[in-house]
Amino acid sequence: MSESVKTVLPESELPRHWYNINADLPVPLAPVLHPVTHEPVGPDDLAPLFPRAVIEQEMSTERDVDIPEPVRDVYRQWRPSPLYRARRLEKALNTPARIYYKYEGISPAGSHKPNTAVAQAFYNQAEGVKRITTETGAGQWGSSLALAGAMFGLDIEVFMVNVSFHQKPYRRAFMESFGAQCIASPSTLTAAGRAVLAEHPDSTGSLGIAISEAVELAVQRDDTKYALGSVLNHVLLHQTVSGLEAMRQLDMLDDYPDKVIGCTGGGSNFAGIAFPFLGERLRGGPETDFIAVEPASCPTLTKGKFAYDWGDTGHLTPLTKMHTLGSGFVPPGFHAGGLRYHGMAPQISHLTDLGYIQPRSYGQLECFAAGLAFARAEGIIPAPEANHAVKATMDEAIACRESGESKALLFNLCGHGHFDMQAYTDYLAGHLKEEETSAAEQSMALAGLPGV
């Protein structure tokens, strides 16, 4: 086996197709339902929100979906991204495990999110859209869409969850540098925002609230569409470029993962690294394990209910069957802002329900500790979200040390932490605490599920 640390593909091997796991599901996804009629939605129902090409991808069951050349041209600025062998971390842990990480932090926005932002901006521009509204939690998605909007000449309006708006001012500055407008959510610009503020004037906000605000503005103008950075099928589809590259890179090293690990908030980065390998398993390939890691304070997969729910707090979106804590759930303001969503991608929820994905959760303090241990070994400071995958990978590596097994562990280092240094400052100073939600709060939110 090669002793290399970094495996890099040439631009000529940038994938030409995204992988659509819908083609290989043993049981089809439950249909998306209209929020009023509870009948399955069709393309016309989604047309006010998304361009036609995106709607087609959302509903597609084709295994390979072409990546348009203009999108590949932009991808080439940072793709293919490197695959690292974490040799120094292996040594620090004294483990026989072979630890690999796909590093998505080299993108211009510092995360995996441009993989879908660029694609969605392209499809919107091709259909004549002038303006896109969206939401963002930690700011990685808003940063990525701002970047993509500048590349394709689109106006971008971002509703940023209020607590992150104040925690992460440099993410806001990044968006504004590319010409996007960044608004703290809940805001007074929308009926959805005003309703929340009337009841909770000091609301920390949530992704569900921010989605409601973005959707409300999108449907008011014919030249405007809405873009989502996670959860939906087409977003997860676009992210598979990462996993497809990783398959080729591991093939060059004559290795294959025993376990694939990713953090999960809405599910896009986990799906991006895991779905190509999971598709192999569904088609009779190796029995790889898939571990989806979420924060203990927003435990969608581990404690949520697999049921139909709205994707937003204001109940403007269609109903999807997913693991959910309830659309009214407002998570505490822990620092992994990209993981503060009440629901989970329907595809990931479905595959978890079928037993193909193993969910687990961790508190933020143990994740920050793992992130710093990783940084001191590998020289990369992970984003707070990615620390969840780092923690799980280190636990698996320690289990290999105890059992003497040499397993291959692959995780997605989905972004760097350069915009999150205040979080690390707070952790090192002992100012961070575990943010918890009570069973009563979760039960109250789940009581509001639609009667489907």
Automatic annotation (TrEMBL):
One Pfam family recorded for the sequence: PALP
Positions bearing N6-(pyridoxal phosphate)lysine: 113
EC number(s) from the headed UniProt entry: 4.2.1.20
Single GO molecular function: tryptophan synthase activity
Keyword Amino-acid biosynthesis: yes
Pathway info: Amino-acid biosynthesis; L-tryptophan biosynthesis; L-tryptophan from chorismate: step 5/5
Principal EC category: lyase
Sequence ranges assigned to domain Tryptophan synthase beta chain-like PALP in this UniProt record: 77-415
PROSITE patterns (UniProt xref): TRP_SYNTHASE_BETA (PS00168)
GO cellular component, as recorded: cytoplasm
Cofactor entry: pyridoxal 5'-phosphate
Keywords: Amino-acid biosynthesis, Aromatic amino acid biosynthesis, Lyase, Pyridoxal phosphate, Tryptophan biosynthesis
Its job: The beta subunit is responsible for the synthesis of L-tryptophan from indole and L-serine.
UniProt record similarity statement: Belongs to the TrpB family.
Subunit relationships: Tetramer of two alpha and two beta chains.
Protein name, per record: Tryptophan synthase beta chain
Organism: Spiribacter salinus
